[in-house]
Amino acid sequence: MKLILPIEVAAEIEPHLPSDTKIVLVDSDGNLDNDAHDAEVYLSWFFLKLTSLHQVLAAAPTLRWHHAPNAGVNHFLTPAYLERDLILTNGAGVHGIPIAEFVIAYILSHAKHLPQLHALQAERHWKRHFPIQELTDATLLIIGAGGIGQEIAARAKAFNMRIFGSRCHPQELPNFDKIVGADEWRSLLPEVDYVVIATPLTRETKGLIDETVLRSLPPHAYLINIARGAVVDEPALIKALTEGWIAGAALDTVIGEPLSSDSPLWSVPNLFITPHCSGHSPRVKQRSIELFLDNFQRYQAGQPLRNVVDKQAGY
């Protein structure tokens, strides 16, 4: 069997493959070091460019399975990609822990006024009487109670938060006080303190967090997006923060990345922007490799693969 492997991790994967496995290496620009016309499996890597993806697809007409380490794969699903009869699996689960820890960091930063306290230290100004909050009994709504959402809930519950979640098919889950259907979360907005967006980007979720949603939140609410930038209507969020409809927001992802230096988002009051880094961790690479190798064994054995993407749904 012939595999196409990214040069970033091929040396770590190859020792775990059967001795008769043939390997074609691919770089970040989609350049292959050998003939891939009969390759059956393709492992891409993070920050894959569409031009590189399409170059690999053109060079490998018999490809059957593509594994991507990303949790979100909506950007791969171009007409050219969907024309191919490919099994697509993703990296759902490998980023959950670092992202969940980042969400807790955003929440604590807001509740404990850490940016203001850092600024006071820089100014050598001793000031007290901040309206510092506890997280106990604060209400957290997680829009998208999938793998990442469940990791967030597990950590938030340790702070005795009340946790609501939404998912397409509601079911009881550990650490959630309430799970509602895909659109029922809207009725919960007036009573939440924190909202975390953890839903995939699909046709249905694009622009989901719009002016109506933001106006439905209480003035003290704090919004966090660790999903995809396009889930949030950015002009509506700018208006909400500028006019004080909500207390603040944290964005780890925006519509146009990298965020241009002249973007109005940089200067919006009470907005904390991080450069799409909440999923970063040295352990993510190892988890990604382990997931691929486990799936490769399943593929060889004709067993169901983990994390198969519904390409029509987009996740």
TrEMBL record:
InterPro entries: D-isomer_DH_NAD-bd, NAD(P)-bd_dom_sf
Signal peptide limits: none
Sample GO molecular function, one term: oxidoreductase activity
SUPFAM superfamilies: Formate/glycerate dehydrogenase catalytic domain-like, NAD(P)-binding Rossmann-fold domains
Keywords linked to the UniProt accession: NAD, Oxidoreductase
CDD domains associated with the record: 2-Hacid_dh_1 (cd05300)
Matches recorded under Gene3D superfamilies: NAD(P)-binding Rossmann-like Domain
Pfam families: 2-Hacid_dh_C
Record domain D-isomer specific 2-hydroxyacid dehydrogenase NAD-binding: where: 104-278
Protein name: D-2-hydroxyacid dehydrogenase
Organism: Amazonocrinis nigriterrae CENA67
